[in-house]
Write a structure and sequence with these properties.
- The chain is of the alpha/beta class.
- The protein contains 5 helices and 6 strands.
- The strands form 2 sheets. Strands 2-1-5-6 form a 4-stranded parallel beta sheet. The chain has a two-stranded antiparallel sheet with strand order 3-4.
- β5, α4 and β6 form a beta-alpha-beta unit.
- It is globular and about 35 Å long.
- It starts with 6 loop residues before the first helix and ends in a 7-residue tail after the last helix.
Length: 142
């Protein structure tokens, strides 16, 4: 498993590895910024630009949390499954999950990562708050 800080290594060590991005609906335009610039929006500590993910391999989910981490719209696993099936067709091997306001509440990122690891273990998956979870000894159960 790769942490968010290893995205660049994933893409350069294994030439030809396709990386897919899953983010909150309406945030794809932010993915052109570096994570330093978008930290408040994407809540990630990774210094690697998300734009290293090919634009046609970026997908949105309709989940939404407010700036306090309160759930406005829940995570739809049928929507996630459709994205994963699409990623399989595209030959994606690694998935980055970076959802809006996840530093306030990372339940959706954690749930999506758990789902992918459980039902699609062929994907390498990381989420933007994974480093935080590892530092606080709160990793997802696999």
């Amino acid at each position: 498993m790769h942490t968010a800080n290893d995205i660049d290594e994933v893409s350069t060590e294994k030439q030809g590895v396709k990386i897919g991005l899953i983010t909150t609906q309406g945030c794809l335009d932010v993915s052109e910024l570096t994570n330093e610039d978008a930290c408040e929006l994407l809540n990630t500590e990774n210094k690697q630009p998300i734009s290293s993910v090919a634009q046609h391999l970026r997908r949105e989910v309709s989940e939404r949390m407010n700036q306090k981490g309160e759930i406005i719209s829940g995570l739809d696993f049928d929507e996630v499954e459709n994205i994963l099936q699409d990623f399989k067709v595209e030959g994606v091997q690694a998935i980055v999950i970076s959802l809006l306001h996840s530093c306030q509440n990372n339940d959706h990122e954690r749930a999506m990562a758990y789902y992918i690891k459980k039902y699609h273990p062929d994907f390498s998956v990381t989420y933007s708050t994974e480093d935080y979870d590892q530092r606080t000894h709160n990793p997802i159960n696999t």
